[in-house]
Amino acid sequence: MNPFAPKKEELNDSAYWVMVEKIRDLVPGAAGRTAEFESLGIPTNVLCDGPAGLRINPMRKGDSNTYFCTAFPIATLLASSWDTALVRSVGEAMGNEVLEYGADVILGPGMNLQRNPLCGRNFEYYSEDPLITGKMAAAMVRGIQSQGVGTSIKHFAVNNQETNRNTVNTIVSERALRELYLEGFRIAVQEGQPWTVMSSYNKINGAYTSESHDLLTKILRNDWGFKGYVMTDWGGGKDPVAQMKAGNDLLMPGSGKQISEIIQAVKEGKLEEKVLDKNVENILNIVLKSPKFRGYANSNKPDLKAHAEVTRKAAAEGMVLLKNGNNALPFSNIKKVAIFGVGSFNLISGGTGSGDVNEAYTVSLVQGLENAGLSIEEKSMKEQLDHIQKAKAKQPKQLFFFMPPAVIPEFSVKPALASAAAQNADAALITISRISGEGADRKAEKGDFYLSDEEVNLIKIVSSAFHAAGKKVVVVLNIGGVIETASWRDIPDAVLLAWQPGQEAGNSIADVLLGKVNPSGKLACTFPMKYDDVPSAKNFPGIELPDTSTRKPGSPLEEAFLRAKPAEVVYEEDIFVGYRYFTTFNVPVAYEFGYGLSYTTFDVSNLVASSGQFAGKYEFSVDVKNTGNTPGREVVQVYLSAPAGKLVKPAEKLVAFAKTSLLQPGETQTLHFVLTPRDLASFDEATSTWIAEKGNYEVRAGVSSLDIRQKATFELAKNLTVEKNTKALVPEREIKVLRP
Ligand code: GLC
Predict the structure, then answer these.
(1) Are both 127 and 212 inside the same structural domain?
(2) Is 233 assigned a catalytic role?
(3) How many domains does the chain have?
(4) Identified catalytic residue from 223, 233, 426, 493
(5) Domain membership flag for residue 238
(6) Which of 148, 228, 283, 331 is the most exposed place for a label (fewest CB within 10 A)?
């Protein structure tokens, strides 16, 4: 039962229900549609999920055509490419499918900060860092909207967990809000101009985001200049009148009850019509740009073959080579591979929930390796396929299509089987996979954040057998979010982080394993030594408060997705999230933010700066040389260490990055960077102002947040007021925030 389905008893308006009936089945599988007013020449707009590709029903009753869409790599993988041009190309392909399948707005990109590794929807989001988040989201928005369709950046804002997401009150300082949780959205709004923004389910400092005039008008419109319209998340918030006043123009999916309450409020003088006029104007300004209004004759035949090539390439570009001992990769003189792990036979293309895609296929690892000319060791494959078949037969039925499927227990490999495989094959591949999605967070337990005992045994037994035979072992991580690696990574020869790479998964992985693509991905999130090292581990996902409501439990679906247990979470770690914490507090990590290996090596040298003073900007360049013997690409990351002053600061923050073109062995490319006053600034709560404090700044150009290759300093002679913002979203109470 769809908890969002409008109920007739809520609104006695036959014309409304006739209209609802008329548009209800436009583009089956769409998440929602805006109202249509035929007599006024106002068409509906069809709104579809999601961040990894258009999500619509692949089949339609009585229609022999199919409506499959391309499952692109997850946002976390795209961010790991550090390549905004690549992300834009994915957006163009995705936007073309939105256009050709007759939709008007895609409900993405998802871009909440990855505050804690256990958030179930991290796969839909980009990074722990706001700059990467904003730049990737802006590139995606520009790519999609270049096709004449709209986007909806989400979930605005501070929606960093799934637990009690419809009610949780997020208590966070103004500075952490501005510098971390809102900054990515600001960049996306100002550099991408998204047609729409989707407010989130949660509260910020006591107010539902969809009811917050501070957030949706003072910050989004007055401070940032947003020009489109704001929609709720589905069923988000409580008070439609407050939502109208806040500047949440559109209520999705919309209900008769909300309409009645708004009409009643106008009649009682509690809501001025001019407020509604503004909301409607914001919506119509976007409808006027939509394909529906333009009368675009969609083909229902996007070029899925061409888009498959886009996703295959993008996935390979975002994979991260974490370890490559004994030059295990790229495979050479490898003809037959033994593959192990349930994940090897069940590759996960993306996460679950509204961020899922109904794609026509996912290329398996076996197909990918065979397409690349390799064969698979038969005996070990057969035994594992039998194991999977038996396990699947016992799996509980999926409650809802939205929920992650039950986990198939890992295969318990016998040493004899591993030894036999080691005799027959030239190398071994072990896939560790994880899946999560909307409506639930992950757990810091074995089988989730940590490997299960069976997975560890699998790696140990297979590695022991293949190493005894003088052969190499590669672990492939097919995951949507961070897991623990430090306790087992020394066992295999190599570790490739493939993330959830979209529908061309097996081909993209094979392209990297065989060296057709030289991996150039870098982590956009930290892999900690253990979960408890994460600064938000102490307070994630917050606490549940006494439930004084008389609410009767809803349907299982409502309880799973809309359960309304009062809750709160305090962001005590404040501005120290991710590498900002680990570098400032010198906490060792397994793999640092910005880390990633290549099949070649690079030298970063010759930092040349415009001057030692900051005079309105600071320009510099560095040279990147391919010092190895394989063509490859490098990412230069620029971190800034600001002087201590009135405001405490993290040890460093990312202020710029650039990826080289494919450099041939011996080739050098010069990368140019310009730092602006905003890059130097911190947010001062006392004056609601971005200020750059005077003193010496250190520029660090490196290939990870810890691997710095070139440094320079410049002086800012006096404090600089960079930008004045409005006072907004002040916490209701004092927060004890983490300080070094
Ligand atoms: C969901 C999600 C949102 C999605 C919307 C429509 O609850 O939170 O990301 O776009 O509803 O499906």
Answers:
(1) yes
(2) yes
(3) 3
(4) 233
(5) yes
(6) 148
